[in-house]
Write a structure and sequence with these properties.
mainly alpha, 79% helix
């Protein structure tokens, strides 16, 4: 039963990875599996069977959601944008209290508060950058290789650091359409087979990026636990503020707003239950 729940959590994390502005790692933290996943990857050999079952369950859910739900997410964002975004905002919001409690009020210590402010404004700074006009179709093979490698590294970075959305960063850099198109085509075995040369640098960047970021986060959580969570809280609150501002920047009907608020509450309760 526990591993089935991990698959379900993985599905939500996977959907969160392809939603604009949502952090998959932040959802993992809201569901209470973030620290466990970092530890399982970093110390995989200490309990191979247990770690394989846990990480495998999460991976199955994440991959299933990213491949099978990408078209559904595109449809939901196009027709039910407010309710979809508020549902995931509620899921993220449910994890904020547990992050705060892990710091034991040390956020008010001067050095910790500086880390919190830096991380908070870092995400806000990223959201204000101008998008790069990247034309992958006309790129040279070398540029294509470097861009796919960069997408893999960025995906790994945002996959491990809570509060930083990979999709938001891809949108800032002008790479989101390429990323979403790539995810949608992963389920096509024939396409993947004939595009292995294109995907290879992405996979290399993703694997090396994950291994490095997991090593770094494992070190920070073991040696500088509270100050690391101050940074995570800053990333998380800034991402939530960015999501709220972006979501509320459109015009909605009263029905949309009521349904959206209901989804916000449902998302918060659902995330809180999973975290428990």
């Amino acid at each position: 039963m526990a591993y089935f729940l991990d698959v379900v959590k993985g599905c939500f994390i996977g959907i969160g990875k392809i939603l604009p502005g949502v952090s998959g790692a932040m959802l993992a933290m809201s569901f209470g599996v973030y620290d466990q996943a970092i530890h399982a990857i970093r110390h995989y050999r200490k309990d191979i069977i247990k770690n394989t079952l846990f990480l495998g369950s999460l991976a199955i859910g994440i991959l299933f959601a990213m491949v099978c739900c990408s078209h559904l997410v595109s449809f939901a964002l196009e027709h039910y944008y407010l309710t979809t975004m508020l549902l995931f905002i509620g899921l993220i919001l449910s994890g904020i209290p547990s992050i705060y409690h892990k710091m034991d009020k040390d956020i008010f210590h001067p050095s910790y508060f500086i880390v919190f402010l830096l991380s908070f404004f870092f995400v806000f700074f990223l959201s204000r950058l101008q998008m790069m006009d990247t034309q992958l179709q006309t790129s040279s093979p070398t540029m294509m290789f470097l861009l796919m490698l960069a997408i893999g590294l960025i995906d790994a970075f945002t996959m491990v650091i809570p509060g930083i959305s990979g999709t938001a960063l891809f949108m800032i850099l002008g790479l989101y359409p390429t990323y979403l198109n790539m995810i949608q085509k992963i389920g096509n075995i024939s396409f993947v087979f004939h595009s292995m040369g294109t995907y290879f640098p992405y996979v290399i960047g993703l694997l090396f990026g994950i291994l490095f970021m997991v090593w770094m986060m494992d070190y920070l959580l073991n040696k500088h636990y509270k100050i690391t969570y101050c940074g995570i809280l800053g990333f998380s609150l800034s991402s939530l503020l960015y999501l709220f501002l972006e979501t509320l920047s459109r015009n909605y009907t009263v029905t949309d707003i009521v349904a959206g608020l209901m989804c916000l509450v449902v998302g918060y309760i659902f995330g809180h239950k999973f975290d428990s």
